[in-house]
Specification:
- The chain has 9 helices and 12 strands.
- It is rod-shaped and about 170 Å long.
- Helix content is about 55%, strand content about 15%.
- The chain has 3 domains: about 140 residues, PAS domain (Beta-Lactamase); about 120 residues, Signal transduction histidine kinase, dimerisation/phosphotransfer (DHp) domain (Helix Hairpins, Orthogonal Bundle); about 150 residues, Histidine kinase-like ATPase, C-terminal domain (Heat Shock Protein 90, 2-Layer Sandwich), CATH 3.30.565.10.
- It has about 475 residues and is of the alpha+beta class.
Amino acid sequence: MVKRSLSNRVFFTVLFALGIILLLSRIGLHYFADDFYFEMQARKMRKSTELVSEFLETTNNGPMIGQFLQKQAGIIGGVIVVTDKNDNILYSSFALIDQQKGMRFNRLGQIRAALSSAQRLFYTENVADSFRWVNYKHEDERHNVIAGVSLLAVDDTIKAIGSMNNYILGVSLLVAILASLLAARNISRPLIELNRVAKDLSDLDFSSRSKIKRTDEIGQLGDTINSMAERLQQTIGRLRQELKKERDSEKVRRAFVARASHELQTPLAVISGYTEALQDKVADDADEQQHYYDIIKNETNKLSSMVRDLLELSRLENPEFSIEKKDFDIIVLLRELVEKQLLIGEERNIAVKTEGLVISYKVNGDALRIEQAISNIISNAKYHTPDQGQINVSAVRNGKALTISIENSGSKIPKANLPHIWNSFYTTNQEGGAAHGTGLGLSITKNILLRHDCIYGAENTATGVRFWFTIEIID
Protein backbone atom coordinates (compact mmCIF):
# COMPACT_ATOMS: atom_id res chain seq x y z
CA MET A 1 0.00 0.00 0.00
CA VAL A 2 2.83 2.38 0.87
CA LYS A 3 4.68 1.60 -2.32
CA ARG A 4 1.60 2.12 -4.51
CA SER A 5 0.61 5.36 -2.77
CA LEU A 6 4.10 6.87 -2.92
CA SER A 7 4.61 5.90 -6.55
CA ASN A 8 1.21 7.30 -7.56
CA ARG A 9 1.84 10.57 -5.81
CA VAL A 10 5.20 11.05 -7.45
CA PHE A 11 3.84 9.92 -10.84
CA PHE A 12 0.83 12.22 -10.86
CA THR A 13 2.78 15.16 -9.43
CA VAL A 14 5.42 15.00 -12.15
CA LEU A 15 2.81 14.30 -14.85
CA PHE A 16 0.69 17.23 -13.67
CA ALA A 17 3.70 19.58 -13.75
CA LEU A 18 4.69 18.47 -17.25
CA GLY A 19 1.05 18.64 -18.41
CA ILE A 20 0.77 22.23 -17.18
CA ILE A 21 3.92 23.13 -19.11
CA LEU A 22 2.60 21.54 -22.31
CA LEU A 23 -0.81 23.18 -21.87
CA LEU A 24 0.71 26.61 -21.36
CA SER A 25 2.86 26.18 -24.44
CA ARG A 26 -0.19 25.16 -26.52
CA ILE A 27 -2.22 28.15 -25.25
CA GLY A 28 0.67 30.48 -25.93
CA LEU A 29 1.03 29.16 -29.48
CA HIS A 30 -2.72 29.45 -30.15
CA TYR A 31 -3.21 32.98 -28.85
CA PHE A 32 0.16 34.63 -29.30
CA ALA A 33 1.78 32.88 -32.28
CA ASP A 34 0.21 35.25 -34.83
CA ASP A 35 1.38 38.36 -33.04
CA PHE A 36 4.78 36.89 -32.32
CA TYR A 37 5.36 35.79 -35.93
CA PHE A 38 3.97 39.06 -37.27
CA GLU A 39 6.30 41.00 -35.01
CA MET A 40 9.22 38.92 -36.26
CA GLN A 41 8.30 39.69 -39.86
CA ALA A 42 7.92 43.39 -39.07
CA ARG A 43 11.42 43.45 -37.52
CA LYS A 44 12.83 41.67 -40.57
CA MET A 45 11.16 44.14 -42.94
CA ARG A 46 12.41 47.10 -40.91
CA LYS A 47 15.93 45.68 -40.96
CA SER A 48 15.83 44.98 -44.70
CA THR A 49 14.50 48.44 -45.58
CA GLU A 50 17.23 50.06 -43.48
CA LEU A 51 19.89 47.99 -45.27
CA VAL A 52 18.44 48.95 -48.67
CA SER A 53 18.45 52.62 -47.70
CA GLU A 54 22.09 52.35 -46.66
CA PHE A 55 22.93 50.52 -49.90
CA LEU A 56 21.31 53.25 -52.01
CA GLU A 57 23.63 55.77 -50.38
CA THR A 58 26.67 53.92 -51.78
CA THR A 59 25.68 53.26 -55.46
CA ASN A 60 23.46 54.34 -58.36
CA ASN A 61 23.98 51.14 -60.37
CA GLY A 62 20.49 49.91 -61.30
CA PRO A 63 21.29 46.21 -61.89
CA MET A 64 23.27 46.01 -58.60
CA ILE A 65 20.46 47.69 -56.76
CA GLY A 66 17.94 45.26 -58.33
CA GLN A 67 20.04 42.26 -57.26
CA PHE A 68 20.40 43.63 -53.73
CA LEU A 69 16.64 44.19 -53.53
CA GLN A 70 15.99 40.62 -54.69
CA LYS A 71 18.36 39.32 -52.03
CA GLN A 72 16.64 41.26 -49.26
CA ALA A 73 13.20 40.30 -50.61
CA GLY A 74 14.22 36.63 -50.37
CA ILE A 75 15.20 37.16 -46.75
CA ILE A 76 11.82 38.57 -45.76
CA GLY A 77 9.84 36.29 -48.12
CA GLY A 78 8.13 39.19 -49.93
CA VAL A 79 8.88 42.19 -52.17
CA ILE A 80 10.81 45.44 -51.77
CA VAL A 81 10.11 48.68 -53.74
CA VAL A 82 12.10 51.92 -53.81
CA THR A 83 10.44 55.27 -54.71
CA ASP A 84 11.58 58.86 -54.79
CA LYS A 85 10.10 61.64 -52.68
CA ASN A 86 7.49 62.24 -55.35
CA ASP A 87 6.30 58.65 -54.94
CA ASN A 88 7.69 57.59 -58.32
CA ILE A 89 8.79 53.96 -58.28
CA LEU A 90 12.52 53.70 -59.03
CA TYR A 91 13.42 50.09 -58.22
CA SER A 92 11.70 46.86 -57.21
CA SER A 93 12.85 43.45 -56.15
CA PHE A 94 11.13 41.65 -59.06
CA ALA A 95 11.79 43.87 -62.14
CA LEU A 96 12.63 47.34 -63.41
CA ILE A 97 9.75 49.78 -63.97
CA ASP A 98 9.63 49.41 -67.74
CA GLN A 99 9.33 45.59 -67.39
CA GLN A 100 6.43 45.56 -64.93
CA LYS A 101 2.98 44.43 -66.11
CA GLY A 102 -0.07 42.37 -65.10
CA MET A 103 -0.44 41.44 -61.44
CA ARG A 104 2.97 42.73 -60.62
CA PHE A 105 2.14 46.09 -62.15
CA ASN A 106 -1.16 46.06 -60.25
CA ARG A 107 0.80 45.27 -57.03
CA LEU A 108 3.06 48.28 -57.65
CA GLY A 109 0.02 50.39 -58.17
CA GLN A 110 -1.37 49.29 -54.84
CA ILE A 111 1.89 50.14 -53.09
CA ARG A 112 2.20 53.44 -54.95
CA ALA A 113 -1.35 54.36 -53.93
CA ALA A 114 -0.51 53.65 -50.28
CA LEU A 115 2.64 55.78 -50.16
CA SER A 116 0.62 58.67 -48.89
CA SER A 117 -0.02 56.77 -45.63
CA ALA A 118 1.53 58.45 -42.64
CA GLN A 119 2.06 55.10 -40.88
CA ARG A 120 5.22 53.08 -41.29
CA LEU A 121 3.31 49.77 -41.03
CA PHE A 122 0.19 49.45 -43.24
CA TYR A 123 -1.89 46.87 -45.12
CA THR A 124 -2.82 46.60 -48.82
CA GLU A 125 -4.97 44.20 -50.84
CA ASN A 126 -4.37 42.72 -54.31
CA VAL A 127 -7.54 43.09 -56.37
CA ALA A 128 -6.64 40.22 -58.71
CA ASP A 129 -6.50 37.53 -56.07
CA SER A 130 -7.80 39.32 -52.96
CA PHE A 131 -4.49 38.65 -51.17
CA ARG A 132 -3.73 40.99 -48.31
CA TRP A 133 -0.25 42.28 -47.74
CA VAL A 134 1.48 43.82 -44.79
CA ASN A 135 3.94 46.60 -45.66
CA TYR A 136 6.67 48.55 -43.91
CA LYS A 137 7.85 51.96 -45.17
CA HIS A 138 11.28 53.41 -44.41
CA GLU A 139 12.01 57.03 -45.36
CA ASP A 140 15.34 58.76 -45.82
CA GLU A 141 16.30 62.09 -47.40
CA ARG A 142 15.94 60.92 -51.05
CA HIS A 143 13.99 57.65 -51.05
CA ASN A 144 11.10 55.71 -49.66
CA VAL A 145 11.83 51.99 -49.23
CA ILE A 146 8.76 49.78 -48.91
CA ALA A 147 8.84 46.08 -47.97
CA GLY A 148 5.76 43.88 -48.29
CA VAL A 149 4.93 40.33 -47.20
CA SER A 150 1.81 38.38 -48.14
CA LEU A 151 -0.39 37.60 -45.14
CA LEU A 152 -1.30 34.35 -46.84
CA ALA A 153 2.30 33.19 -46.46
CA VAL A 154 2.25 34.27 -42.83
CA ASP A 155 -0.99 32.41 -42.20
CA ASP A 156 0.30 29.27 -43.94
CA THR A 157 3.45 29.35 -41.83
CA ILE A 158 1.50 29.73 -38.61
CA LYS A 159 -0.86 26.92 -39.59
CA ALA A 160 2.11 24.69 -40.37
CA ILE A 161 3.64 25.49 -36.99
CA GLY A 162 0.29 24.77 -35.29
CA SER A 163 -0.05 21.39 -37.07
CA MET A 164 3.49 20.47 -36.20
CA ASN A 165 2.89 21.54 -32.59
CA ASN A 166 -0.04 19.10 -32.37
CA TYR A 167 2.28 16.22 -33.22
CA ILE A 168 4.90 17.57 -30.86
CA LEU A 169 2.27 17.85 -28.12
CA GLY A 170 1.24 14.21 -28.55
CA VAL A 171 4.84 13.00 -28.47
CA SER A 172 5.59 15.28 -25.52
CA LEU A 173 2.63 13.82 -23.63
CA LEU A 174 3.97 10.28 -24.11
CA VAL A 175 7.43 11.43 -23.03
CA ALA A 176 5.87 13.13 -19.99
CA ILE A 177 4.14 9.89 -18.98
CA LEU A 178 7.38 7.91 -19.33
CA ALA A 179 9.32 10.61 -17.47
CA SER A 180 6.74 10.55 -14.67
CA LEU A 181 6.98 6.77 -14.38
CA LEU A 182 10.79 6.90 -14.27
CA ALA A 183 10.73 9.72 -11.72
CA ALA A 184 8.25 7.85 -9.53
CA ARG A 185 10.35 4.72 -9.69
CA ASN A 186 13.61 6.57 -9.18
CA ILE A 187 12.32 8.34 -6.05
CA SER A 188 9.94 5.80 -4.52
CA ARG A 189 12.11 2.65 -4.79
CA PRO A 190 15.03 3.94 -2.67
CA LEU A 191 12.61 5.44 -0.14
CA ILE A 192 10.82 2.11 0.13
CA GLU A 193 14.19 0.43 0.63
CA LEU A 194 15.10 2.91 3.38
CA ASN A 195 11.70 2.34 4.99
CA ARG A 196 12.36 -1.42 4.99
CA VAL A 197 15.69 -0.95 6.74
CA ALA A 198 14.17 1.46 9.27
CA LYS A 199 11.38 -1.04 10.00
CA ASP A 200 13.94 -3.82 10.53
CA LEU A 201 15.84 -1.57 12.93
CA SER A 202 12.62 -0.80 14.81
CA ASP A 203 12.14 -4.59 15.11
CA LEU A 204 15.67 -4.77 16.62
CA ASP A 205 17.12 -6.43 13.52
CA PHE A 206 20.38 -4.47 13.45
CA SER A 207 21.91 -6.67 10.74
CA SER A 208 19.67 -5.11 8.08
CA ARG A 209 21.47 -2.85 5.59
CA SER A 210 20.41 -0.52 2.78
CA LYS A 211 21.39 -1.72 -0.72
CA ILE A 212 21.10 1.73 -2.34
CA LYS A 213 24.11 2.57 -4.51
CA ARG A 214 23.75 6.28 -5.21
CA THR A 215 25.82 9.40 -4.65
CA ASP A 216 22.95 11.88 -4.20
CA GLU A 217 21.15 12.87 -0.98
CA ILE A 218 19.12 9.63 -0.91
CA GLY A 219 22.32 7.60 -1.27
CA GLN A 220 23.91 9.62 1.53
CA LEU A 221 20.84 8.96 3.69
CA GLY A 222 21.21 5.24 2.98
CA ASP A 223 24.88 5.35 4.00
CA THR A 224 23.94 7.21 7.17
CA ILE A 225 21.29 4.61 8.07
CA ASN A 226 23.78 1.80 7.39
CA SER A 227 26.35 3.51 9.60
CA MET A 228 23.74 3.99 12.32
CA ALA A 229 22.67 0.34 12.06
CA GLU A 230 26.27 -0.82 12.31
CA ARG A 231 26.89 1.33 15.38
CA LEU A 232 23.66 0.16 16.95
CA GLN A 233 24.63 -3.44 16.28
CA GLN A 234 28.02 -2.91 17.88
CA THR A 235 26.48 -1.03 20.80
CA ILE A 236 23.84 -3.70 21.37
CA GLY A 237 26.58 -6.33 21.21
CA ARG A 238 28.59 -4.50 23.83
CA LEU A 239 25.48 -4.00 25.96
CA ARG A 240 24.71 -7.69 25.77
CA GLN A 241 28.25 -8.49 26.82
CA GLU A 242 28.01 -5.96 29.63
CA LEU A 243 24.65 -7.40 30.64
CA LYS A 244 26.12 -10.89 30.66
CA LYS A 245 29.04 -9.65 32.75
CA GLU A 246 26.60 -7.89 35.04
CA ARG A 247 24.58 -11.06 35.42
CA ASP A 248 27.73 -13.05 36.05
CA SER A 249 28.88 -10.40 38.53
CA GLU A 250 25.50 -10.55 40.21
CA LYS A 251 25.83 -14.31 40.52
CA VAL A 252 29.33 -13.88 41.92
CA ARG A 253 28.10 -11.18 44.29
CA ARG A 254 25.28 -13.37 45.55
CA ALA A 255 27.64 -16.29 45.96
CA PHE A 256 30.09 -13.99 47.73
CA VAL A 257 27.41 -12.66 50.09
CA ALA A 258 26.21 -16.18 50.81
CA ARG A 259 29.74 -17.42 51.42
CA ALA A 260 30.65 -14.37 53.52
CA SER A 261 27.49 -14.82 55.57
CA HIS A 262 28.41 -18.45 56.13
CA GLU A 263 31.99 -17.62 57.05
CA LEU A 264 30.90 -14.86 59.41
CA GLN A 265 28.21 -17.01 60.94
CA THR A 266 30.67 -19.70 62.03
CA PRO A 267 32.77 -17.62 64.47
CA LEU A 268 29.65 -15.82 65.64
CA ALA A 269 28.01 -19.14 66.44
CA VAL A 270 31.11 -20.30 68.31
CA ILE A 271 31.31 -17.03 70.27
CA SER A 272 27.59 -17.18 71.06
CA GLY A 273 27.79 -20.83 72.14
CA TYR A 274 30.75 -20.45 74.49
CA THR A 275 29.34 -17.18 75.91
CA GLU A 276 26.09 -18.93 76.77
CA ALA A 277 28.07 -21.80 78.27
CA LEU A 278 29.92 -19.36 80.53
CA GLN A 279 26.65 -17.68 81.45
CA ASP A 280 25.12 -21.02 82.33
CA LYS A 281 28.27 -21.84 84.38
CA VAL A 282 28.92 -25.00 82.39
CA ALA A 283 32.64 -24.62 83.14
CA ASP A 284 33.28 -25.14 86.87
CA ASP A 285 37.00 -24.65 87.31
CA ALA A 286 39.09 -21.65 86.31
CA ASP A 287 41.19 -23.55 83.75
CA GLU A 288 38.14 -24.63 81.76
CA GLN A 289 36.70 -21.14 81.93
CA GLN A 290 40.00 -19.72 80.68
CA HIS A 291 39.90 -22.23 77.83
CA TYR A 292 36.45 -20.93 76.88
CA TYR A 293 37.69 -17.34 77.06
CA ASP A 294 40.63 -18.20 74.79
CA ILE A 295 38.30 -19.76 72.21
CA ILE A 296 36.03 -16.70 72.29
CA LYS A 297 39.03 -14.42 71.90
CA ASN A 298 40.44 -16.42 68.94
CA GLU A 299 37.07 -16.45 67.19
CA THR A 300 36.68 -12.73 67.84
CA ASN A 301 40.10 -12.06 66.33
CA LYS A 302 39.21 -14.27 63.38
CA LEU A 303 35.92 -12.40 62.92
CA SER A 304 37.66 -9.04 63.16
CA SER A 305 40.26 -10.12 60.61
CA MET A 306 37.58 -11.35 58.25
CA VAL A 307 35.62 -8.08 58.48
CA ARG A 308 38.85 -6.13 57.91
CA ASP A 309 39.66 -8.22 54.83
CA LEU A 310 36.11 -7.80 53.51
CA LEU A 311 36.42 -4.04 53.79
CA GLU A 312 39.84 -4.17 52.17
CA LEU A 313 38.53 -6.27 49.28
CA SER A 314 35.55 -3.95 48.85
CA ARG A 315 37.86 -0.93 48.57
CA LEU A 316 40.13 -2.65 46.03
CA GLU A 317 37.19 -3.73 43.87
CA ASN A 318 35.79 -0.17 43.83
CA PRO A 319 36.88 1.54 40.56
CA GLU A 320 36.98 4.91 42.31
CA PHE A 321 39.46 3.68 44.92
CA SER A 322 42.98 4.86 44.08
CA ILE A 323 46.39 3.70 45.27
CA GLU A 324 49.49 5.81 45.74
CA LYS A 325 52.31 4.72 43.45
CA LYS A 326 55.94 5.56 44.08
CA ASP A 327 59.30 4.18 42.99
CA PHE A 328 60.72 1.59 45.37
CA ASP A 329 63.15 -1.34 45.41
CA ILE A 330 61.07 -4.50 45.20
CA ILE A 331 64.03 -6.81 45.92
CA VAL A 332 64.65 -5.13 49.29
CA LEU A 333 60.95 -5.54 50.04
CA LEU A 334 61.05 -9.20 49.04
CA ARG A 335 64.10 -9.96 51.21
CA GLU A 336 62.44 -8.36 54.25
CA LEU A 337 59.28 -10.41 53.70
CA VAL A 338 61.26 -13.62 53.40
CA GLU A 339 63.00 -12.91 56.69
CA LYS A 340 59.79 -11.97 58.52
CA GLN A 341 57.51 -14.66 57.10
CA LEU A 342 59.58 -17.73 56.43
CA LEU A 343 61.80 -17.67 59.51
CA ILE A 344 58.63 -18.12 61.56
CA GLY A 345 58.34 -21.62 60.09
CA GLU A 346 61.65 -22.82 61.45
CA GLU A 347 59.89 -24.91 64.06
CA ARG A 348 58.44 -26.99 61.20
CA ASN A 349 61.85 -27.38 59.59
CA ILE A 350 60.71 -25.68 56.35
CA ALA A 351 63.72 -24.97 54.14
CA VAL A 352 63.83 -21.64 52.30
CA LYS A 353 65.71 -21.27 49.00
CA THR A 354 66.07 -17.89 47.24
CA GLU A 355 67.27 -16.97 43.75
CA GLY A 356 67.92 -13.60 42.15
CA LEU A 357 67.48 -11.56 45.34
CA VAL A 358 70.91 -9.95 45.06
CA ILE A 359 70.43 -7.40 42.25
CA SER A 360 68.14 -4.51 43.10
CA TYR A 361 65.25 -3.63 40.81
CA LYS A 362 63.10 -0.53 41.13
CA VAL A 363 59.41 -0.59 40.26
CA ASN A 364 56.62 1.96 40.44
CA GLY A 365 53.71 1.08 42.68
CA ASP A 366 52.19 1.14 46.11
CA ALA A 367 54.82 -0.54 48.27
CA LEU A 368 52.42 -1.34 51.10
CA ARG A 369 49.94 -3.00 48.70
CA ILE A 370 52.66 -4.98 46.92
CA GLU A 371 53.96 -6.08 50.33
CA GLN A 372 50.44 -7.15 51.26
CA ALA A 373 50.07 -9.18 48.06
CA ILE A 374 53.44 -10.96 48.41
CA SER A 375 52.78 -11.56 52.14
CA ASN A 376 49.46 -13.25 51.32
CA ILE A 377 51.14 -15.54 48.76
CA ILE A 378 53.97 -16.44 51.18
CA SER A 379 51.47 -17.06 53.99
CA ASN A 380 49.44 -19.34 51.72
CA ALA A 381 52.60 -21.20 50.61
CA LYS A 382 53.79 -21.63 54.18
CA TYR A 383 50.45 -23.03 55.28
CA HIS A 384 50.35 -25.65 52.51
CA THR A 385 54.00 -26.70 52.89
CA PRO A 386 54.33 -29.90 54.94
CA ASP A 387 56.81 -30.24 57.77
CA GLN A 388 60.39 -30.50 56.54
CA GLY A 389 59.19 -29.20 53.15
CA GLN A 390 60.73 -26.42 51.05
CA ILE A 391 59.72 -22.98 49.73
CA ASN A 392 61.54 -21.41 46.75
CA VAL A 393 61.48 -17.63 46.25
CA SER A 394 62.95 -16.25 43.01
CA ALA A 395 63.13 -13.00 41.02
CA VAL A 396 64.01 -13.37 37.33
CA ARG A 397 64.32 -10.46 34.90
CA ASN A 398 63.11 -10.84 31.32
CA GLY A 399 63.61 -7.60 29.40
CA LYS A 400 61.73 -4.86 31.24
CA ALA A 401 59.63 -7.32 33.25
CA LEU A 402 60.54 -8.92 36.57
CA THR A 403 58.88 -12.23 37.40
CA ILE A 404 58.57 -13.05 41.10
CA SER A 405 57.82 -16.71 41.93
CA ILE A 406 56.96 -18.38 45.22
CA GLU A 407 56.84 -22.17 45.04
CA ASN A 408 56.02 -24.55 47.88
CA SER A 409 56.38 -28.29 48.04
CA GLY A 410 53.43 -30.42 49.01
CA SER A 411 50.11 -31.49 47.55
CA LYS A 412 49.04 -30.10 44.20
CA ILE A 413 45.87 -28.23 43.35
CA PRO A 414 43.43 -30.07 41.06
CA LYS A 415 43.69 -28.62 37.56
CA ALA A 416 39.97 -27.81 37.47
CA ASN A 417 40.33 -25.71 40.63
CA LEU A 418 43.29 -23.58 39.50
CA PRO A 419 41.20 -20.85 37.75
CA HIS A 420 39.05 -20.43 40.87
CA ILE A 421 41.62 -20.17 43.67
CA TRP A 422 41.69 -16.36 43.27
CA ASN A 423 37.97 -16.10 44.11
CA SER A 424 36.74 -15.00 47.52
CA PHE A 425 36.28 -17.79 50.12
CA TYR A 426 37.28 -20.41 47.57
CA THR A 427 38.97 -23.51 48.91
CA THR A 428 39.69 -26.88 47.41
CA ASN A 429 37.42 -28.30 50.11
CA GLN A 430 34.28 -26.20 49.66
CA GLU A 431 32.27 -28.05 52.26
CA GLY A 432 34.75 -27.45 55.00
CA GLY A 433 35.00 -23.71 54.52
CA ALA A 434 38.31 -21.92 54.43
CA ALA A 435 41.06 -24.16 55.61
CA HIS A 436 42.97 -21.27 57.20
CA GLY A 437 42.82 -17.48 57.53
CA THR A 438 39.77 -15.68 56.16
CA GLY A 439 39.68 -17.16 52.66
CA LEU A 440 40.11 -13.69 51.14
CA GLY A 441 43.91 -13.44 50.91
CA LEU A 442 44.33 -14.55 47.30
CA SER A 443 41.31 -12.50 46.17
CA ILE A 444 42.86 -9.38 47.74
CA THR A 445 46.20 -10.28 46.13
CA LYS A 446 44.54 -10.57 42.71
CA ASN A 447 42.99 -7.10 42.97
CA ILE A 448 46.26 -5.54 44.13
CA LEU A 449 48.13 -7.09 41.19
CA LEU A 450 45.44 -5.92 38.76
CA ARG A 451 45.79 -2.39 40.14
CA HIS A 452 49.48 -2.56 39.19
CA ASP A 453 48.81 -4.02 35.70
CA CYS A 454 50.61 -7.22 36.67
CA ILE A 455 50.25 -10.56 34.96
CA TYR A 456 49.76 -13.30 37.55
CA GLY A 457 49.01 -16.99 37.80
CA ALA A 458 49.33 -20.29 39.64
CA GLU A 459 50.48 -23.67 38.37
CA ASN A 460 51.37 -27.11 39.58
CA THR A 461 55.03 -28.10 39.47
CA ALA A 462 56.83 -31.39 39.85
CA THR A 463 57.06 -30.96 43.64
CA GLY A 464 54.15 -28.70 44.53
CA VAL A 465 52.47 -25.41 43.54
CA ARG A 466 54.00 -22.20 42.14
CA PHE A 467 52.46 -18.74 42.40
CA TRP A 468 53.96 -15.96 40.24
CA PHE A 469 53.43 -12.45 38.93
CA THR A 470 55.33 -10.02 36.69
CA ILE A 471 55.85 -6.30 37.22
CA GLU A 472 57.52 -3.67 35.03
CA ILE A 473 61.04 -2.56 35.97
CA ILE A 474 62.10 1.10 36.01
CA ASP A 475 65.59 1.51 34.53
